Amino acid sequence: MFFPISHAHINPIYLVVVGFVIGILGGFFGVGGSFIAGPALRLMGVDWNYAVGTDLAHIVGKSIVAAKQHRALGNVDLKLGFFMAFGTIAGAECGGRAEKRCDRAEADHRAGWSRERSQKKTAPHSALSRGIFNG
Prior knowledge:
Layout: E1 2-3, E2 8-9, H1 12-29, H2 34-43, H3 48-72, H4 78-119
Antiparallel strand pairs: 1-2
């Protein structure tokens, strides 16, 4: 099946099996399964950006179901969760902006290096070209 956003052809049965394995791990051990989902998507040729973004959407679905079940058991402190979510949202926003700045700084650095290299003369800087060993 073709997934146009990620430009990937993936067998839906593969996705169901991976999702099932992640569900078993989540239900049995309480782990999220992102350590399987991201690499499993990457294994099928999905770029990392799409694998991470898709996995985040997948996490939201699992989290809603799990939170609902834990709420029914009385294991959810909404006040505590609200404060943690506020901090997480702020941290994720700051982290995302910092990552973009790093990308821009790296691109600017590379562009400057390329410009600098193209502006230099093509004469080699070896000892022979400077005449040190030319009598």
